[in-house]
């Protein structure tokens, strides 16, 4: 099984690149952001609880997202592997993911970390906010908060995967196709 963590700050292009990786390697996509937004759209209790955090650009509590990933993994038998997109976002989430995957002897194969300049991130997110309707993409101070939360709570994950030789830094600037090509060659070498 090929299990990939697609990693990077908000606006790094994880969702866009996940689509290429799914096509190239036949993987299942697990995006916690998408899952949380569909919970909210369906009006579930979990979705309503998550919304208050997402609106402020804060992380949803670990227990909520870990529970969501656990049930998705339990319900996807026969998968060739997963792309984890936007998850893990804290060291506790990474440990919980390892525990879940170890139960099935299918560890993380690699963490692909997209590297993008801060100003480029802000521009991309504000542009996305114009037509996506995502409230968290329409306000510069919420965007800056998300980037700060990323730097403080999520970036340390690099130090979690590096000693396991699973961290791969990839330049996330340039054309979508060029970045997809860089990712593909890293994954082929795993
Ligand atoms: P982006 O990467 O552009 O921030 P996402 O769709 O991945 O977009 O996430 C949107 C929001 O959903 C985050 O700001 C956060 O509030 C919440 N969220 C998504 N994934 C997680 C996670 N793994 N842990 C905690 N909160 C999460």
Description:
The longest helix has 15 residues, at 118-132. The chain is built from nine helices and five strands. It has a five-stranded parallel beta sheet. By secondary structure, it is an alpha/beta fold. The site of adenosine-5'-diphosphate has 18 residues, from α2 and α3.
Short description:
The chain is of the alpha/beta class and 190 residues long. The chain contains nine helices and five strands; from the N terminus they run E-H-E-H-H-H-E-H-E-H-H-H-E-H.
What topology does this entry show?
Blueprint: E1 4-7, H1 14-25, E2 28-31, H2 32-41, H3 45-56, H4 62-74, E3 82-85, H5 91-103, E4 110-115, H6 118-132, H7 140-154, H8 157-161, E5 167-171, H9 176-188
Parallel strand pairs: 1-3, 1-4, 2-3, 4-5
The protein binds adenosine-5'-diphosphate.
């Amino acid at each position: 099984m090929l299990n990939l963590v697609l990693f990077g700050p908000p606006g790094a292009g994880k969702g866009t690149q996940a689509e290429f990786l799914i096509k190239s390697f036949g993987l299942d996509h697990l995006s916690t952001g998408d899952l949380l937004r569909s919970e909210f759209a369906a009006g579930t209790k979990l979705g309503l609880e998550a919304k208050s955090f997402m609106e402020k650009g804060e992380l949803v509590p670990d227990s909520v997202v870990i529970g969501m990933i656990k049930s998705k993994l339990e319900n996807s038998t026969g998968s060739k592997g997963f792309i984890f997109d936007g998850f893990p976002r804290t060291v506790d989430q990474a440990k919980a993911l390892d525990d879940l995957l170890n139960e099935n002897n299918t560890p993380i194969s690699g963490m692909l970390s997209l590297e993008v300049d801060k100003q480029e991130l802000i521009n991309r997110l504000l542009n996305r906010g114009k037509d996506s309707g995502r409230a968290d993409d329409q306000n510069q101070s919420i965007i800056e908060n998300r980037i700060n939360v990323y730097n403080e709570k999520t970036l340390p994950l690099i130090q979690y995967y590096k000693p396991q030789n699973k961290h791969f830094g990839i330049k996330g600037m340039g054309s979508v196709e060029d970045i997809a090509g860089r990712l593909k060659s890293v994954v082929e070498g795993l």
